[in-house]
Specification:
The complex is a heterodimer of chains A (363) and B (796). Chain A is an alpha+beta fold. Helices cover 43% and strands 19% of the residues of chain A. In chain A, a hairpin with a 2-residue loop joins strand 3 and strand 4. In chain A, helix 2 packs parallel to helix 5 and helix 3 packs antiparallel against helix 5. The longest helix of chain A has 36 residues. The radius of gyration of chain A is 44 Å and the shape is rod-shaped. In chain A, 41% of the residues are buried. Chain B is α+β, with helices and mostly antiparallel strands. In chain B, the strands form ten sheets. In chain B, strands 28-31-32-36-35-34-33 form a seven-stranded mixed sheet, with helices on both faces. Classes of the chains: A alpha+beta (363), B alpha+beta (796). Chains A and B meet through helix 6, strand 1, strand 2, strand 3 and strand 5 of A and helix 2, helix 8, helix 11, helix 13 and helix 14 of B.
């Protein structure tokens, strides 16, 4: 058709365009369809260059027919221009799209040859693991930070005075038997509980209020079997302020237990005895293993003992300089091992200190 | 403390349910540790009498018994026991019965049919320690007063339920079952029976008792019993004693034990005829004195031990154990009964020092009310008469120099409710005190309360709060949240520092371990720490030698864990511990320092992406990233450590601001050998106290002018370190070097022996202007000249 078009244009006279316009348009249309078909059928970039040259090269068809524009009268120029433009743009666009497509295909083909096995393991080592005791300790600290408690720490090696006397456990008090103590000297002990932090912090804060802390840390008792370790971890809580009540203690403990074990858990307080709190309470959490139906874990009672607590004994407040008629407080202490064992279903406390990597990696 | 339900039932007009009691006691604060149904493993066992015995025709060791179980027909039972005789009363397990250890059916022993089995104590579930030598011989002989055919559970009170109480120190009074009964009556609103007593009158003349140490013995009561008739206790009485865990011995001993379990108050009986001078003296002993106690052991006394003496000799270790010289025996005809009160601390010390703990001492050392002495005495006398054990004299002797003060405490409902956060009415509060048998006097708002004498734990008004709330019910306390002012106490930086270090370590692929804070002294040798005299922190009373010293380093514990994991075939061990180490000080508390220890082993496992070998620099990289995160101080590494734990050529000290804060290196192969680790292992231990300062960040302007990067390669003597070179480059750079990167170190071909080639890429930048090419070249030359002068570097 190119030939025919050329001939037509060759013969075109400045004033005959209008008559020939329809014919030219038709011919261009035919040529266009042919070109689009060729473009459509292109299978590689090389071939596309031929088409590019054929129409848009220096001696290409479009370049050529544009030359006829000069022959046209000013009146006819726009008409011919439009006809040629329409022809040109459509072929150009199609060719560009087709080339783009062919290029993508070519790149992807090349990339597919670079395929890797993405199921192979990633590079770099494995992640490490925090000790389960740390996980529980950090969780409890966060639970209390959220409600405005300050995390504090004390000495692991403590004076007898702070470990016992300041907690209303004078020498020869029968309660000293409850906690078999390691001694470094007559008046220096490995602390048997985190409770001396109570006295230390009250001394530091006095006379300010509130005293509102949780204190995690290592404690030591002369005991070693499948349920006792000579070193273990506790977290102590203390809130001393005006108008602190036993019911506040119960509310905080419920908050704690539900934060650790879940909203569906209940607590039970049982009267107990600690020299530094009165009234005192042992706190049980409802057994989540059997939903209180009774199982081996809870010794068929439906309850699991998790912590000790109570209202700070007036003597303890007094010794720190606070007036027990003006100020009250509560304190509680829980064993982190106990919580970890319940939470993760660990049945032997010694696993926590064997530090077998196969154990640690589970947390 | 064992409590028998049958024993408890004596004090009430009705039977008791053990489950209800368990529930009530728990609610009231007496912890039920265990509940045992004594006879739940046995059934269908009755009392019988051996009417005839004959030898088994085909077996020497078997005998054929004809047993009367109260029915017309006698049972034929074959037994292998040797302690049987005609007329003996025995427990008979019938066909279809259960004994401890199995079911009993009709059996044939060497051709002779046996319609059941005769039982030993163990087969009935009675603990060996509760049986006498004679009872342990074989078949359990039954007392004469047991009826033929009677169910053995009933006969021996094996249908009893035993509740094991874990008593807290404040409730030592509940070592007396009668006081437990008071709690039971509280829980169920049951009427408690009064104890039967033999009332008595005090003898005018109390010269017979002389208490020298009135501080250690506030009260001493004695009473004479004549015409003593020592024999076994009746079965019902012996059963109760056995059920609370005491072996019945004879009526007199059983009575003192019974009173001790009933009222919590230990008593003692002396053979009156063995006492001299008609006098009881209570005084401490003399150092070095010897005394033989009832158990036949000679004890060496000290001057702080309290003794009971007659006119001439020591006759008992007060509150702990009687003496052999005044022991009641089969020939005893008169006794002197003692009910006394002793200082708890004194008894505890004595019992500790002698390593002698008795039922009596364990009660006295918890503190007992002196008021109870007379009650115990009158109760014992009643039982002596009841069991026909002797004739009790009408009057008793007493010395009571220090009268027990029973406090009267004033409180108000407002006070009680203020502590509890509750709203209990005054009437209810008074009701609680009355239910406890406390005397109550009300003056408008004020409630004056006088507790029962045995409740020596009630001393102040907070004790009353506890009584109110435990009786009222802990389950009725509401849950509220505290209101109040804002907490002003700031958290110490160390606390969050520890958390972020742990986070960082975990991100580095290290797992956290926690080891004991105490180690073995030998562990120090194992890690090559020389002995430094006696200043190491030693535990006076360790559980074992292995846990007897407070650790000064984390290394022993960490190596131990590494070794344990290595032996369990773990490779590529990457662990850390963050914890305190301790050093002694001349005065006051020891120092506690926060240390971080990291251990990694050489990784020999081939991975698909290639082997990433752990080495010194892997560990150093971990440390560098950690320090970059937590510290803004510059860190220096000084080659070589004094510690024998490390490879001398691959270790060094870590220095921050002039302080050595730790060590890093490859562990010495000889040390690793001791821990059976066969792979190269890298370790660092760092003291964090100097780093526990929160870095303050202030933004500095980002340089506006371009930087220039130039490479530089030179040859230096082999022993010159990268650290030295970096220092020199910095020195010479006029602050215009903003970065250096070492990218090659080469020794070998083309390099002279004893030299190495190093290649740096140096980044130059001036914060005030663009550096020209000439300026950079000049700086580059200055650096090279400095290196040449100072460490003999030559350009390659």
């Amino acid at each position: 058709m190119i030939k025919e078009i050329n001939t037509l244009l060759e013969e075109l006279q400045p004033d005959t365009l209008k008559e020939k316009a329809k014919q030219l348009e038709d011919m261009l249309e035919t040529e266009k369809l042919e070109a689009l078909k060729l473009i459509e059928e292109l299978s590689n970039i090389e071939e596309s260059k031929e088409i590019q040259n054929k129409y848009f090269g220096k001696k290409g068809f479009v370049t050529k027919i544009m030359k006829y524009m000069g022959k046209m009268s000013n009146e006819d120029k726009p008409l011919l221009g439009k006809i040629i433009h329409d022809f040109k743009v459509e072929i150009e666009n199609n060719l560009k799209n087709k080339v783009g497509h062919l290029e993508s295909l070519a790149i992807n083909e090349k990339l597919l040859a670079e395929k890797i096995d993405i199921t192979l393991p990633g590079k770099g080592g494995k992640i490490g693991h925090k000790h389960p005791l740390t996980l529980v300790e950090e969780e409890i600290k966060e639970i209390f930070r959220r409600i405005g408690f300050t995390v504090a720490e004390g000495y692991e090696i403590e004076e007898d005075y702070f470990n016992f006397e300041r907690l209303n456990i004078p020498k020869e008090h029968p309660a000293r038997e409850m906690q078999d103590t390691f001694y470094l000297s007559e008046d220096i002990v490995l602390r048997t509980h985190t409770s001396p932090v109570q006295a230390r912090i009250m001394d530091k804060m006095h006379p300010q209020l509130p005293v509102k802390i949780v204190a995690p840390g290592k404690v030591f008792r002369r005991d070693d079997d499948s349920t006792h370790s000579p070193m273990f971890h506790q977290i102590e809580g203390l809130l001393v302020d005006k108008n602190i009540t036993f019911s506040d203690l119960k509310g905080i403990l419920l908050y704690l237990v539900q934060a650790i074990f879940g909203k569906d858990r209940k607590i039970r307080l049982r009267p107990s005895y600690f020299p530094f709190t009165e009234p005192s309470a042992e706190v049980d959490v409802s057994c989540g293993n059997c939903n209180q139906e009774g199982c081996r874990m809870c010794s068929y009672t439906g309850w699991l003992e998790i912590l000790g607590s109570g209202m700070v004994h007036p003597r303890v407040l007094e010794m720190a300089g606070y007036d027990p008629e003006e100020v009250t407080g509560f304190a509680f202490g829980l064993g982190i091992e106990r919580i970890a064992m319940l939470k993760y279903g660990i049945d032997d406390i010694r696993l926590l200190y064997e530090n077998d990597q196969r154990f640690l990696e589970q947390f | 403390m064992k409590v028998s339900i049958k024993w408890l039932e004596q004090y009430f007009d009705q039977q008791l349910d053990s489950n209800t009691i368990e529930h009530d006691l728990t609610k009231l604060g007496l912890e039920v540790e265990d509940k045992i149904n004594l006879g739940d493993k046995i059934s269908k066992i009755v009392a019988g009498r051996i009417e005839a015995l004959s030898k088994h025709p085909d077996a020497d060791k078997l005998q054929i018994c004809s047993i009367n179980i109260g029915t017309k027909e006698h049972l034929q039972i074959v037994t292998g026991a040797q302690n049987v005789y005609i007329g003996m009363k025995v427990p008979v397990a019938l066909v279809g019965s259960k004994v401890v250890g199995g079911d009993i059916g009709l059996s044939k022993l060497r051709g002779i049919e046996s319609y059941g089995m005769l039982c030993s104590g163990a087969e009935l579930g009675i603990e060996n320690s509760l049986l006498s030598e004679k009872e342990k011989e074989g078949i359990l002989p039954l007392a004469e007063d047991i009826e033929l055919g009677q169910d053995i559970k009933e006969a021996l009170a094996l249908d009893d339920v035993i509740i094991e109480l874990g008593l807290t120190p404040n409730r030592a009074d509940c070592y007396g079952i009668y006081n437990v009964a008071k709690e039971v009556s509280l829980g169920q609103s049951l009427k408690l029976k009064k104890l039967d007593l033999v009332k008595s009158i005090i003898k005018d003349n109390t010269k017979d008792i002389e208490i020298i140490r009135t501080d250690l013995c506030p009260r001493y009561i004695s009473r004479i019993v004549k015409n003593v008739n020592i024999k076994p206790s009746p079965v019902w009485f012996a059963n109760l004693i056995r059920n609370v865990g005491i072996r019945p011995i004879n009526n007199l001993v059983d009575i003192t034990n019974y009173v001790m379990f009933e009222l919590g108050h230990p008593m003692h009986a002396f053979d009156l005829d063995k006492l001299e001078g008609n006098k009881i003296i209570v005084d401490t002993g003399n150092k070095g004195e010897k005394f033989i106690t009832l158990d036949g052991v000679e004890r060496e006394l000290t001057e702080d031990m309290l003794l009971i003496k007659d006119a001439n000799k020591n006759i008992a270790l007060a509150g702990v154990m009687g003496g052999a010289n005044s022991e009641v025996d089969d020939n005893t005809s008169s006794i002197l009964l003692e009910a006394a009160s002793f200082n708890s601390a004194c008894i505890r010390k004595t019992s500790r020092k002698l390593g002698l703990r008795s039922e009596a001492s364990s009660r006295f050392e918890r503190g007992l009310s002196a008021d109870n002495c007379l009650l115990a005495m009158e109760r014992a006398c009643y039982l002596i008469e009841l069991l026909e054990a002797g004739k009790v004299e009408e009057s008793y002797q007493e010395s009571y120099p220090v009268k027990q003060e029973i406090p009267t405490i004033t409180c108000t409902a407002k006070y009680i409710n203020g502590i509890l956060g509750m709203n209990i009415s005054q009437e209810e509060i008074i009701g609680v005190f009355k239910s406890l048998n406390f005397k109550v006097e009300v003056l408008a708002e004020e409630i004056k309360v006088t507790p029962e004498a045995h409740r020596i734990d009630i001393q102040s008004k907070i004790d009353l709060v506890e009584e109110v709330v435990r009786v009222y019910g802990y389950d009725r306390i509401p849950s509220t949240l505290p209101q109040g002012a804002t907490n002003t106490l700031a958290e110490e930086y160390t606390i969050s520092l520890k958390e972020s270090i742990k986070n960082q370590m975990v991100a580095e692929g290290l797992s956290e371990i926690i080891t004991y804070s105490f180690i073995d002294n030998k562990d120090y040798e194992s890690i090559g720490m020389e002995y430094q005299g006696d200043d190491r922190l030693k535990i006076i009373n360790p559980l074992s030698e292995k846990q007897s010293y407070m650790r000064e380093k984390l290394l022993p514990g960490i190596l131990d864990i590494a070794s344990r994991n290595y032996k369990r075939q773990r490779k590529n061990i990457r662990i850390f511990e963050l914890g305190n180490v301790y050093t002694g000080r001349d005065q006051g508390l020891p120092e506690e320092n926060l240390n971080l220890g990291i251990l990694i082993t050489e990784n020999k496992i081939k991975e698909v992406h290639g082997l990433e070998l752990n080495d010194f620099y892997t560990l150093k990289g971990i440390l560098e990233r950690l320090l970059a995160k937590i510290s803004d101080s510059s860190i220096a590494y000084l080659p070589g450590t004094e510690r024998k734990a490390f490879h001398p050529g691959r270790s060094g000290q870590i220095e921050v601001k002039g302080d050595i804060i730790g060590e890093i290196g490859e562990l010495h192969p000889q040390i690793l050998d001791k821990y059976d680790i066969k792979e190269k292992t890298y370790y660092l231990e760092l003291n964090l106290d100097k780093l526990a300062i929160k870095p303050v960040t202030i933004y500095s302007q980002i340089a506006k002018f371009p930087f220039v990067e130039r490479d530089m390669a030179f040859v230096v003597p082999q022993e010159k370190s990268y650290g030295e070179m970096i220092e020199l480059i910095k020195e010479a750079s006029d602050n215009k070097v903003i970065g250096t990167r070492i990218f090659d170190i080469y020794e070998g071909q083309q390099i002279e022996d004893g030299y190495k080639s190093v290649a740096f890429s140096i980044t130059y930048q001036d914060k005030d202007k663009t550096l020209t090419d000439d300026e950079v070249t000049k700086l580059h030359e200055i650096i090279l000249n400095t290196l040449a002068q100072k460490i003999g570097a030559k350009l390659r």
